[in-house]
Specification:
155 residues; 3-stranded parallel beta sheet; 5 helices; 39% helix; elongated
Length: 155
């Protein structure tokens, strides 16, 4: 094999590929890494299914926190909160969950889903989730949710 031309270039490239990581790792001794609990990004989340699970909610949220998660994603089902009709809210369960996540020092990501029957279009298949007949109803619900939990829901 000739020691000139493209072979020489490839040999130098291989040598650089092998030596570069070694040289970079010798940059003045061990590098201090910031503690994980001090990092703000990335923040990791876990989804927890705790709605109506009164006996296990605190345990499950503590498990998430103890595992290092700082965010918890919880379902806020429109069809449970405003089930009886427009403007008739049942806040007991979401209040319980928001309070507990706050007490445990977890940040809350709210997933809003599931349209109540009264908000669906006439003739809609109620066996499956679907859009509201009037999106204004959804906007008003989310507005009420945001107003009630201002500063307590992070996303």
């Amino acid at each position: 094999i000739s020691r000139s031309g493209p072979w020489r270039f490839l040999a130098w490239l291989g040598l650089v590929a092998i030596i570069s990581p070694l040289l970079l790792s010798c940059g003045g001794g061990p590098q201090a890494k910031p503690p994980l609990d001090k990092m703000s990004s990335p923040d990791y989340a876990v989804q927890a299914v705790v709605w109506g699970q009164y006996d296990t909610t605190e345990r499950d949220l503590r498990l998430a926190k103890d595992a290092g998660f700082r965010w918890v994603k919880l379902m806020f089902q429109w069809d449970y909160i405003e089930v009886k009709g427009k403007g008739l809210f049942e806040w007991n369960e979401p209040d319980r969950l928001v309070k507990l996540t706050s007490e445990l020092g977890l940040k809350l990501l709210a997933r809003v889903d599931f349209v109540p029957k009264w908000a669906r279009a006439p003739g809609a298949d109620l066996k499956v989730n679907g859009p509201p007949a009037k999106y204004e109803d959804f906007f008003e619900f989310v507005g009420a949710l945001a107003k009630r939990y201002k500063g307590k829901i992070g996303a």
